[in-house]
Amino acid sequence: MRAQPKASHYINGDFAEDTQGAGLDVIYPATAERIAQLHLATPNVVELAVESARAAQASWARVKPMERGRILRKAADILRTRNEELARLETLDTGKAIQETLVADPASAADALEFFGCAIAAHNGDHIELGGPFGYTRREPLGVCVGIGAWNYPIQIAAWKAAPALATGNAMVFKPSENTPLSALALAEILTEAGLPGGLFNVVQGAGEVGAQLVGHPAVAKVSLTGSVATGKKVMALASSQMKHGTMELGGKSPIVIFDDADLENAVGGAMLGNFYSTGQICSNGTRVFLQKGIYDRFLDRLSERTRAIRLGDPLDPDTHLGPLVSAEQRERVLSYITLGQEEGAHLHLGGGAPSLQGFEKGFFVEPTIFTEVRDDMRIAREEIFGPVMCVLSFDTEEEAIARANDTEFGLAAGVFTRDMARAHRVVGQLQAGSCWINAYNLTPVELPFGGFKSSGIGRENALAALDHYSQIKAVYVETGNVESPY
Ligand code: NAD
């Protein structure tokens, strides 16, 4: 299995290499075999990428927004045409099942390019009447923006950042996660094919050190990070020390509150999607499932039955539901939380193992896992695990569920399942989370803003809100009479 790109980086409209950089092995998580070898960016590569972005940005900012949008929409079309090939690349890089990557990864990247490609032409400033004189506002780009990605949705994350950044007239240097470096290069190539001038979307490879070099570069105006809260705090600290803009899309430990009157099959399906999709590696996962006492037994029975039917295995087999975790390190982390949960006194209701699957003995698989008898103060109920591990808790009253759902440092997402719509809206109105779902979970259409409350982040991706985060407002006062001066 090979997925070797033409070179490690993408700078000024073309692939670029610097073999002085330390080696980076790209591993297929299902077999642990090496599928590509890249080099981490040297300071020279970082400098070239930022400089080419800086040089290209000024003229891009003067291109008519409609024209900029047309290029993004063309890139969306190319992504859709190449969906199968890109989904396969994403599966090789992340280990996620192809039945997911075929519908979720390049597809959501294309949606972002299409949405911002369409929306930008109507993203204008305001005209403000001042009784004779008047004012207007201009939305101006920030300049060179840095995007830093996590490994769970590599091409989606790259496009969710690149599309609004480029639409508003910025240039971007994107650093994918060192675990999943491949698909951002494919996106860069596609943007070039769609007509994006060189330098406007550059990709450099590296780990945290390269990320920090980019954030601290004096020519960089903004950073958008998708990653953990710990990394977000470091990145935001560095960016704010230089008064740079920041969008932080960070982690979570989100609640799903399921009331007695919920539709059982929908609630079970929602909770499973919110815990096991992408092998549990989703920031907005609803990993604390609160069940009202009257539905508890029925829910657990159906949940167990449906979870036992999940097929783990070859990610490239279209019938496989769950692939492996992204890396050996991540599997160790998840397994150590499963051990911890048992030590803390939770009941391991289902799963918990690291199966050795025939033909994939070296893969980083973990079974979908359900803990019951979980208490709110246990670490498995408080910390983000980022694997297929669901904690089931029970509650009596609405007030209790809301208070316990909110008792966390995180605030990325939350879900409510009930047939009582008045209650659904009342509860959602009190949940401290940036994304809430009523009778659904983990759907993130580009038309809705996405981002966290509390420690889960700052700023928003997607929707028109993202355009605000990639532009700055200039206010212009226009005098139509004489200057009144006492001097
Ligand atoms: P991570 O924080 O370890 O790394 C994220 C990215 O930051 C990587 O590209 C990494 O190289 C880079 N990085 C690390 N240290 C840095 C530094 N000091 N300066 C600059 N860059 C640095 O996260 P991860 O393990 O790759 O991803 C999992 C985390 O991401 C989870 O916490 C998950 O919840 C979160 N996540 C959030 C969202 C969201 O939209 N809110 C989406 C996906 C993942």
TrEMBL record:
<dbReference type="GO" id="GO:0008802">
    <property type="term" value="F:betaine-aldehyde dehydrogenase (NAD+) activity"/>
</dbReference>
<dbReference type="InterPro" id="IPR029510">
    <property type="entry name" value="Ald_DH_CS_GLU"/>
</dbReference>
<feature type="binding site">
    <location>
        <position position="457"/>
    </location>
    <ligand>
        <name>K(+) 2</name>
    </ligand>
</feature>
<dbReference type="InterPro" id="IPR016163">
    <property type="entry name" value="Ald_DH_C"/>
</dbReference>
<keyword id="KW-0521">NADP</keyword>
<comment type="subunit">
    <text>Dimer of dimers.</text>
</comment>
<feature type="active site" description="Charge relay system">
    <location>
        <position position="161"/>
    </location>
</feature>
<feature type="modified residue" description="Cysteine sulfenic acid (-SOH)">
    <location>
        <position position="283"/>
    </location>
</feature>
<dbReference type="InterPro" id="IPR016161">
    <property type="entry name" value="Ald_DH/histidinol_DH"/>
</dbReference>
<keyword id="KW-0560">Oxidoreductase</keyword>
<dbReference type="Pfam" id="PF00171">
    <property type="entry name" value="Aldedh"/>
</dbReference>
<feature type="active site" description="Charge relay system">
    <location>
        <position position="461"/>
    </location>
</feature>
<comment type="pathway">
    <text>Amine and polyamine biosynthesis; betaine biosynthesis via choline pathway; betaine from betaine aldehyde: step 1/1.</text>
</comment>
<feature type="active site" description="Proton acceptor">
    <location>
        <position position="249"/>
    </location>
</feature>
<keyword id="KW-0520">NAD</keyword>
<dbReference type="InterPro" id="IPR016162">
    <property type="entry name" value="Ald_DH_N"/>
</dbReference>
<comment type="similarity">
    <text>Belongs to the aldehyde dehydrogenase family.</text>
</comment>
<feature type="binding site">
    <location>
        <position position="454"/>
    </location>
    <ligand>
        <name>K(+) 2</name>
    </ligand>
</feature>
<comment type="function">
    <text>Involved in the biosynthesis of the osmoprotectant glycine betaine. Catalyzes the irreversible oxidation of betaine aldehyde to the corresponding acid.</text>
</comment>
<dbReference type="InterPro" id="IPR011264">
    <property type="entry name" value="BADH"/>
</dbReference>
<feature type="active site" description="Nucleophile">
    <location>
        <position position="283"/>
    </location>
</feature>
<dbReference type="InterPro" id="IPR015590">
    <property type="entry name" value="Aldehyde_DH_dom"/>
</dbReference>
<feature type="binding site">
    <location>
        <position position="251"/>
    </location>
    <ligand>
        <name>NAD(+)</name>
    </ligand>
</feature>
<feature type="binding site">
    <location>
        <begin position="175"/>
        <end position="178"/>
    </location>
    <ligand>
        <name>NAD(+)</name>
    </ligand>
</feature>
<protein>
    <recommendedName>
        <fullName>Betaine aldehyde dehydrogenase</fullName>
        <ecNumber>1.2.1.8</ecNumber>
    </recommendedName>
</protein>
<feature type="binding site" description="covalent">
    <location>
        <position position="283"/>
    </location>
    <ligand>
        <name>NAD(+)</name>
    </ligand>
</feature>
<feature type="binding site">
    <location>
        <position position="93"/>
    </location>
    <ligand>
        <name>K(+) 1</name>
    </ligand>
</feature>
<keyword id="KW-0558">Oxidation</keyword>
<feature type="binding site">
    <location>
        <position position="384"/>
    </location>
    <ligand>
        <name>NAD(+)</name>
    </ligand>
</feature>
<feature type="domain" description="Aldehyde dehydrogenase">
    <location>
        <begin position="18"/>
        <end position="476"/>
    </location>
</feature>
<feature type="binding site">
    <location>
        <position position="27"/>
    </location>
    <ligand>
        <name>K(+) 1</name>
    </ligand>
</feature>
<keyword id="KW-0479">Metal-binding</keyword>
<dbReference type="InterPro" id="IPR016160">
    <property type="entry name" value="Ald_DH_CS_CYS"/>
</dbReference>
<keyword id="KW-0630">Potassium</keyword>
<feature type="binding site">
    <location>
        <begin position="149"/>
        <end position="151"/>
    </location>
    <ligand>
        <name>NAD(+)</name>
    </ligand>
</feature>
<feature type="active site">
    <location>
        <position position="249"/>
    </location>
</feature>
